């Protein structure tokens, strides 16, 4: 028997049961219009759901489990934004625009000073407008998002929520005899993509979010769990700047986001921090995605011990070669996606093993944790999602056998 182990994990979101979605939808909303008021019955339901979810992950062959983002409100079966919008309920200083509020004035990015201008008309969406507008095309965007504005001083108010998240996962780990688990949390750069009327600049807004999210990061780490920081803004924002910036200008645009994130995780154990990078989980062509090679060195400046990224979908699979040419900090663990949220086709375990072995040849088997490209919950049908996780578990076992001879 092989003495080699290839660990497996997920990128966060996993399918919620219809009962949990319905219970979330039934919660009352607070006066701010978007904060859901949890009830004791809902809290008990969520705890039970996390415990059952962890058991199902173990059965599928997942060795480093998460809570499926069950603590982040998701009220529809297809919700691509819960990983982000949950933060609105945990942060003071936000306000929903009134029903008669005028739409934001059009803005344009300027050379040398890129700024987000196209949150709702990304260049990929414009280039493939016919496909995106055709409900029979199979291109999915999920439910329409809602974004509040930052109108006051930002402050974290989610202490009870994150405490429930960590307690639920810790109890589930104990119930199944596990030690390692992770919870996702939002990066400052991604959080700050909402509108802002309070802070004088985008930079000031991002740094304010860094101080907010630091409280949640600390709570997760202090609970003995791994903190996964979700930051699609590092790669995805490229497609939300019009006109398209130069690579040099975009790298400068990322500098504040990298620095603010490092400030937010300062003092946290590097081995308990992992960064998740992706190009957005909606199902579309993604032809305007930025190439990883342009920013990988900046990503590695984040003081995380593990890096989660898309390596299984057909737009980014070839980029495994980028990792051969970078200098990784000592002890860095790569978490490549080897099954994808972007297709209903379930990957063959042999293909999963091949993908894992590419990275094992670069960093050794101990430096690889096989994962999903992005969250599966709300992206593919639950039956397909669990089939993908079983393929992930089986592929990891095959890869370990090949390495062990």
TrEMBL record:
Residue span of region Disordered? 96-116
Q: Entry's InterPro entries?
A: Met_Synth_C/arc, UROD/MetE-like_sf
Write down the superkingdom of origin: Bacteria
Domain called Cobalamin-independent methionine synthase MetE C-terminal/archaeal: residue spans: 200-390
Instruction: Supply the SUPFAM superfamilies for this chain.
Output: UROD/MetE-like (SSF51726)
Q: What is this protein called?
A: Cobalamin-independent methionine synthase MetE C-terminal/archaeal domain-containing protein
